[in-house]
Amino acid sequence: DLGSTNGTRVAGALRKGGAPIALAAADSFHIGPFSFVLVARTRGDERSRSGRDVLRVLDPTPTGVPGLVRELAASDVSVLILGETGVGKEVLAETLHTLSARAGAFTRLNCAALSESLLESELFGHEKGAFTGAATRKVGLLEAADGGTVFLDEVGELPPSIQAKLLRAVEHREVLRIGSTRP
Q1: Using an 8 Å Cβ cutoff, are 183 and 174 in contact?
Q2: Which residues of 12-22 are buried (b: 16+ CB within 10 A; e: fewer)?
Q3: pLDDT 10s digit of each residue in the chain, 183 long?
Q4: Can you tell me whether residue 25 is helix, strand or coil?
Q5: What is the pTM of this model?
C-alpha cells in the first residue's frame, strides 16, 4: 500500500498510500482489476492433505468464508481458478456457486477425459445433421447451464481451437452450436 497512487482496496476500503497494513491468511486485497487472497503456508506434514481438507470452512455461513469469495459469488463475473492438482479448485468453485444467487445447477466436466470432437459437442451442442451420427439437435453444457455454473476441470488441456470458441462464449455469453449459423 505504501506509495500507491491509484489506490489499493483492502478489507473493502480504498487506501491511497499511508502506513503498512497487516494482512492475515484468507485476507483479500485488490489492485486495479486484480484480486488476491493470502493463503497460509502449510506445514510439511499437512501437504499430503487434500484440497478439500485444506479449504475446509469451519463457519459455513457467508461470513465464514474469505471476503473475496463472497464478493465473487455476489457478482456476475466469470472466474478462472488456477492451482495444482488437489489444492481445492473444485471445492472453491462449488463454494462460489453455493454462495451465489445462481438458480441453475453446478455442472462439472473433465476436459482431459474426452476427445476433441466429443468435447466440442458436449460444451457447445450441435444441430441435427451437423456431422455423421447427429440424428437430433443437442444442447451443450454451456447452454444448458444458463443460470448455473459450469466447472471445467483441466481446461488447459483443451485444443486451441476449442479454447478460442470457449473464450468467445465466456466473453459474449453466447454459444454457437456445431452446424448452426446463429448463436
Answers
A1: yes
A2: eeeeeeeeeee
A3: 445 556 677 766 777 766 777 777 767 776 666 666 666 555 544 444 444 454 455 555 556 677 778 888 888 888 888 877 777 888 888 888 988 988 889 999 999 999 988 999 999 999 998 888 889 999 999 999 888 999 999 888 899 999 999 998 988 889 999 999 999
A4: coil
A5: 0.63
